[in-house]
Design brief:
Layout lengths: L10 H6 L3 E3 L8 H8 L4 E4 L4 H4 L7 E3 L4 H13 L1 H18 L2 H16 L1
Parallel strand pairs: 1-2, 2-3
Helix pairs in contact: 2-5
Length: about 120
């Protein structure tokens, strides 16, 4: 564990991680999860807010119910112990961000929203 205090640029820390754990009880669409996925770091997160829009559990990361400590522990151990699984999740997560959450893709979605509102 690294606890550096305030860090204005966390990308270096994220890139060096073996796993990102996001054990939230409530979320929107967390940037830290997107950032980890984009650099190929596997994610274990609670299935809250917009997180299930980012992660398909077992395919592009692992999702567990919020507050389920046993499931979180099981997920953590499975990712830590199973290197092929960890690599597969990381690669698929990176592909999800590239195809579904790229800047270009988000610009197209936002343009459509504006066009619908203007119509």
């Amino acid at each position: 564990f690294i606890l550096p205090g305030f860090e204005p640029n966390v990308l270096g820390f994220i890139k060096s991680a073996d796993l990102l754990v996001n054990p939230s009880y409530s979320e929107g669409l967390p940037n830290v999860v997107l950032e980890a996925m984009a650099v190929g770091v596997p994610v274990l997160a609670t299935a809250v807010g917009g997180v299930p829009e980012l992660i398909e559990s077992g395919k592009s990361g692992l999702l567990v119910p919020s507050g389920d400590h046993a499931a979180m522990t099981h997920g953590l151990l499975s990712i830590a112990e199973e290197v092929p699984t960890r690599k597969r999740l990381a690669e698929q997560a990176r592909k999800v961000v590239e195809t579904d959450f790229s800047f270009e893709r988000q610009a197209v979605k936002l343009t459509r929203i504006y066009e619908e509102m203007a119509a």
